[in-house]
Design goal:
Oligomer: single chain
Order of helices and strands: HHHEHEHEHEEEHEEEEEHEEHEEEHHEHH
CATH architecture of the largest domain: 3-Layer(aba) Sandwich
Number of helices: 13
Shape: globular
Helix content: 25-40%
Strand content: 15-25%
Distance between the termini: 7 Å
CATH topology of the largest domain: Aspartate Aminotransferase, domain 2
Radius of gyration: 22 Å
Length: 413
Amino acid sequence: MSLPSQIPFVDLVAPHVEMEAELLDVTRTVLRSAGFIGGPMVADFEHDFAAYCDAEHAIAVNSGTDALRFALLAAGVTEGHLVLTVANTFIATTEAITQAGARPQFIEIDERTYNLDPRRLREFLERECVFDARVRRTIHRRTSRPVTAVIPVHLFGQCADMDPILELAERFNLTVIEDACQAHGAEYFSKAENRWRKAGSMGRLAAFSFYPGKNLGACGEGGAVTTSDDEMARRVRMLRDHGQAKKYYHDIEGYNGRLDALQAGFLAAKLRRLDGWNQARREHAARYKQLLAPLAPALTLPHVPNNSRPVFHLFVVRVADREGLQQHLAGAGIGTGIHYPIPLHLQKAYVALGYRKGDLPITERAAAEIVSLPMFPQMTEAQLRHVAGAVADFLAPRKAVEAEPLAAAAARG
């Protein structure tokens, strides 16, 4: 077998070819029943996904952005509130905040994991806020705005350090909403509870995206809110369906945010394979680390704390000359990605928030140096070695990865 001339950043064709018969069966079922919106296909997926996440409820919606927005609205976040989160995430995180009427307040990240740093969160709450015990509300001193929620983003498929975040949220009466849009199946060991917890089961609510490139991706748009709070689940269900408690009885003004039955059927079929796909990602990540370890310190590999079982939605490395590495890999037929080149506090969309370059130095340094290497479950040993060899050729041509000749690697598949 010859080595593929191109290694895509993500392969969305292979899993769908692999599952073609199952996906066509779902399509036929939907076409023959005309059950396009709601119905048993959606309900069955919600039941299965809630169980997968160790949550009582999963409410399927039409995007991860809607999942975040509905979670915030259900939790009572509204005009004038401050919501704490990070700036190195996709803009959907903050779109949901502002579209709920609130204002994002950015907290610095942990330089090793790129997730919300609980120490910086504590500093912000203790130094810049005051807790009014009479009304059990935290107030930001400078703006006098109430701080009502925190959104830890489980970035790149790894959970944020949730124990201290949850402890601070309890102390300052904040609602925790997990942004688990990249973390389907990721786990975190809670010392406070002495057990592993699934992403989507730790906050009061959590939001997932089923965008096609996710670990669990639809064949189009999709998302879900998970929660074990019955009242939160009831509110999200109304919000996604025009505020209806039942057909034509509108308790609130809501949105059209439902998930199509066809996408729910596709997701249910894929959910049965998710653990296997995630395990393949973990194995690929381990192999990357073996191959790329000799390139340190020129190349920084993903850091995985002992209390984390990530699912490697992305395999993100850090290098000083990111553009040079990307160009070199492109010349070798290897796709890459950047997540995310401009942190949100420096985006034009958020000029009005008043942030300036230098306000979040760790976030800014990371944003200038991180690059995502190819990562998908169907990667082969030959592809992994080809990527690692190309990275080594750029960073250390005379050392490091002792790659076999590519033809020999390809022959082994």
